[in-house]
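Anyone up for a design puzzle?
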C-alpha cells in the first residue's frame, strides 16, 4: 500500500470516528446537552462538541491500532496454523460471543442477561453482513477473516467501554468502533488494488 493511501486511510477513519461519536452523543448523552440549552450556553455546548469529537478520535485510533494488529496476526496465523487457521478463527469467534454474554453478565450484580444476549446477537449479525459484503467484493476466503475481525477485534477494542459503569460510554464507543472497523475492512482491498495498478 502506498504511503499516500495509508495517510488517506488514517485521516478518513479519524474523521469518521470523530463525527460518528459526536452524532451518537446527541442520543446517548442528550440529557447533558439539554442541561445547557435552557438557557443556551454556547460555550458549554461547544465544549461538549469538542469533547465528544476528541473522544471519537481516540476511539478511531483504537480501531486503527486493532486493524493493523489484526493484519499482522492474520499473517502470523496463516504462517503457523496454515489450513487450521480459519477453523481456529471460528472457534475464537464462538468463545468471544460466549464471553460477551456469560462473563460480562457474571461480573455485574442484579442485572438481566438479556442486554448481553442482544449485544452478542447484534454483533454477530452485523459482522456476518459485513463479512458477506467483503467476501462478495473480494473472494470467498475473505469471509472468515472478516468475521473474525469484526467480532473478535471489535470486542477487544470495546472492552474499556464495557468496563464502565452504566451503558452510556459502552454505546458511545461501540458505534464508532463498528463504523471505523467496517470502513477499514471494506476499503482496504480498494487501496491495495491501486498499488497493483
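Challenge accepted. My sequence:
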Amino acid at each position: 500500500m502506498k504511503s499516500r493511501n495509508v495517510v488517506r486511510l488514517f485521516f478518513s477513519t479519524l474523521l469518521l470516528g470523530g463525527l460518528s461519536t459526536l452524532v451518537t452523543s446527541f442520543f446517548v448523552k442528550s440529557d447533558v446537552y439539554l442541561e445547557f440549552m435552557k438557557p443556551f450556553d454556547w460555550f458549554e455546548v461547544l465544549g461538549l462538541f469538542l469533547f465528544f469529537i476528541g473522544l471519537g478520535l481516540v476511539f478511531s485510533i483504537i480501531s486503527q491500532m486493532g486493524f493493523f494488529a489484526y493484519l499482522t496476526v492474520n499473517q502470523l496465523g496463516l504462517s503457523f496454523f496454515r489450513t487450521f487457521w480459519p477453523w481456529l478463527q471460528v472457534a475464537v469467534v464462538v468463545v468471544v460471543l460466549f464471553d460477551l454474554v456469560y462473563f460480562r453478565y457474571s461480573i455485574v450484580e442484579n442485572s438481566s442477561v438479556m442486554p448481553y444476549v442482544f449485544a452478542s446477537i447484534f454483533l454477530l449479525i452485523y459482522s456476518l453482513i459485513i463479512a458477506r459484503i467483503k467476501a462478495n467484493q473480494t473472494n470467498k476466503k475473505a469471509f472468515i477473516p472478516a468475521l473474525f475481525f469484526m467480532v473478535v477485534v471489535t470486542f477487544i477494542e470495546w472492552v474499556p467501554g464495557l468496563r464502565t459503569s452504566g451503558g452510556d460510554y459502552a454505546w458511545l464507543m461501540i458505534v464508532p468502533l463498528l463504523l471505523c472497523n467496517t470502513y477499514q475492512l471494506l476499503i482496504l482491498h480498494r487501496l491495495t488494488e491501486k498499488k497493483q495498478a
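A detail worth pointing out: The chain has a mean pLDDT of 89.
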